[in-house]
């Protein structure tokens, strides 16, 4: 994904254009990833474009590390964009230009109220139990009344009567009285734009037609629309965007999503939890959107099926167990060579990718994440003498060494080192000794892997190879 900043051309008539606009003050968390996904899917479903804007105007909190992590996380999920990312901080002059346009046209005004005056105003409102809103004290005053050279902000002259209804594609019709929206600042005294102004200008200049975001931004829509409509009155080419405010994600207990629930960066699911990107893609898709009872939906199917009508109005609940179960499905579907490379990277220098690829059909069968595959593959690269778990060591006590000696000698005489032939030989020995197969398989597993859990014991013998398997059995035999 490109990293240079640019402003895409406005959308063609009838074209759908969405945008994902994260603030780079942290990693790409799970809620942001879902918002990005819904924007991407909606645009792809309608044959439109989806754009990325990095809202990095908070210079103190925005970091390059976070920008890189966001872009890397989007790439990992397979969310590509139709133009290089736009960096909001590069567009401050354009934002200020619009503020001055609004001022010149009478849709905004200079406010010379000092910080001390504004704080006194808020204190009075608190004492009188009134809403904390700017009281419009400079709305109709002549700027000449201010001391010469006094600093000022530019405030939007918002409508004071009537109401505004947004026909939100998820929330339905939402109405707010205009008197509830005060004349807020669009350009600070130092000449820098506020968030409200920057968002509206960028959405217009990028040709965004559909604003799909979390419902914590629903109130912002009622503050951003007046800027849009004031500019439309000036230039007549600032149509209202279509809004779709998605309910937030909650934890499995219904509480606000936190780190203990899984409110982590996408990279944590990849690196710490061993989740595949297609599994997280599918899980986030189903987190607040549905298509009948279907759980497993491919990327291509998602593009074909997704629309905003399927987004629910209630908060969805994040469930790590469901994610892992879905991930298990995608592990079983994934190509063995791809999984072998991912697992080898986790194991390190001792890993043999070719061996892992051969072992993958039996390693991935019950695994729910890559960490479990790694754990299951550890025996392949263990060095003798094997480290034993406490339970494995217990299986090697008593008459186990004598049993292992017989197993070793029978297998050593076996020329056909296939799972079928090895199983037949071991079963024949079990019958000869009057023992159940488990009585032989349990100490065999401990001797061969150092644990009590592994793929099928005959698969283990084949994967280790004749020489190594016999050497491990010999090391524990009497």
Automatic annotation (TrEMBL):
Pfam families: Anticodon_2 (PF19269), tRNA-synt_1c (PF00749). One of its GO terms (biological process) is glutamyl-tRNA aminoacylation. The keyword Ligase applies. Gene3D superfamilies: 1.10.10.350, HUPs. The keyword Cell cycle does not apply. One of its GO terms (cellular component) is cytosol. Monomer. Catalyzes the attachment of glutamate to tRNA(Glu) in a two-step reaction: glutamate is first activated by ATP to form Glu-AMP and then transferred to the acceptor end of tRNA(Glu). This is Glutamate--tRNA ligase.
